[in-house]
Amino acid sequence: MRNPLTLLPLVLLTVAASPTLAQPEAGDEAPGFRLQDQNGEWHTLGDYRGKWITLYFYPKDDTPGCTTEACAFRDNIFAFDRIGAVVLGVSLDDVESHAQFAEKYSLPFPLLADSGSDTARAYGVLSSMGSFKMAKRETFLIDPQGRIAKHYAKVSPANHSEEVLGDIETLMAAAGD
Length: 177
Fold this sequence. Notes:
33% helix, five-stranded mixed beta sheet, 6 helices, Glutaredoxin
């Protein structure tokens, strides 16, 4: 008889793999959303029509990597504002958690509460281990027409904000904006 502990890695791998929708690709219409921010205000994708949108998903408020990434976006917010681009952070945390996180680190952009995980699922970034769910650390750059311009599947929290900012500037120049 096999030792049940030898099957543990296979069981964990099976539990970690969670079904999600296919991720939208460059050129696809960005999936819509309607989510509340840290102040309880509602946001939809349509609210930002005509602007470049950095929609960044992150696993959990006030954790080391997520704090590094959020603070880097905070530190570059004037550069995003200068070019008319918006930054929207999304995690499965609730409005209250987002409010505490935003206040603690003086985050000047909306943190959207995807507590029902519908938006993370629509963007193909929902991850789960049993009953624990979180958004993977991935970003979607959405153009002013509401289409995915770029998907960042691998994100380095410390320099991601500068990477996205540079890409928006390059795409704007190519489009003659």
